[in-house]
Specification:
Layout lengths: L3 H21 L6 E10 L7 E11 L2 E12 L6 E3 L6 E3 L4 E18 L6 E18 L1 E5 L8 E5 L9 E4 L10 E17 L4 E18 L8 E16 L1
Length: about 240
């Protein structure tokens, strides 16, 4: 009988361990929605907005759909300042470029400390089509070098005299002259998700993204322009689990 006690103890311990691991792999939710702010090397201070819905496909795998809208800048953009007004503008910039990116992705959990309040570390692979939205860059331009001459909001052209630019025109100028280009994009990232309470989440995603448009995107005059863009990004997001 005494010999059976250690044997029975080992069986009980093994069963308990298996149950604990099984419970740790069980999710208390099946869906997740989050929204966030994108910061990337092509977008300046704030790159854009991101929205995502994800659904569990297993204890450690999710499928996701969503979209993001970001501002894409040319690497040669730099700010100048009007000597007359002190207003700043971007030298030689001809167009804004925005990218609307619907995406489908898969997420694989590579670390999970707890089902609810722990840290999730996910590997993310996603991609989809891109819609490039290009809008003319408007400047406040004096009609002549005379400082008392009137000025108007006009689209920048490469033959404009920088000394006659007094600032940037209204963003609403040129909305009726936008053009569109299709493309594709893909990204690879890692997210660090922190469960604050059972239904709320906050997280940070970092990664790299590549995007290719069907046409060259002319953003800055007198500089090489391209149809291909790549960037590193950081996404700060919040959301809920269901």
């Amino acid at each position: 009988m005494k010999r059976l006690i250690p044997f029975l103890f080992l069986i009980s311990l093994s069963t308990l361990t298996q149950n604990l691991f099984a419970q740790s792999d069980e999710l208390s939710y099946t869906e997740e929605f989050n929204y966030g702010v994108n910061f990337n090397t092509n977008g300046g201070m704030i790159g854009g907005l991101n929205f995502k819905w994800a659904r569990a496909k297993g204890p450690r795998q999710f499928q996701s759909i969503g979209f993001e809208l970001v501002n894409v800048k040319h690497p040669k953009e730099y700010r100048l300042r009007s000597q007359e007004t002190g207003n700043s503008f971007i030298g030689y910039k001809t167009h804004y470029l925005f990218s609307l990116r619907p995406f489908y992705g898969r997420e694989f959990t590579i670390l999970r400390k707890a089902a609810e309040e722990g840290v999730f570390v996910n590997l993310i692979v996603a991609g989809g089509p891109s819609l490039g939205i290009r809008k003319p860059y408007y400047i406040l331009y004096r009609e002549s070098p005379q400082q008392d001459s009137p000025y108007a909001s006009i689209p920048y052209t490469v033959d404009a005299n920088l000394n006659q630019i007094n600032g940037v025109g209204s963003f609403s100028d040129g909305l009726n002259n936008m053009n569109y280009t299709v493309g594709v994009h893909g990204k690879l990232g890692i997210s660090f998700e922190f469960g604050q309470i059972k239904s709320s989440i906050a997280g940070l995603e970092v990664g790299i993204l590549a995007e290719k448009f069907s046409q060259t995107q002319n953003i800055v005059g007198l500089a090489p322009n391209s149809s291909f863009f790549s960037s590193a990004y950081i996404l700060l997001y919040f959301g809920k689990k269901y």
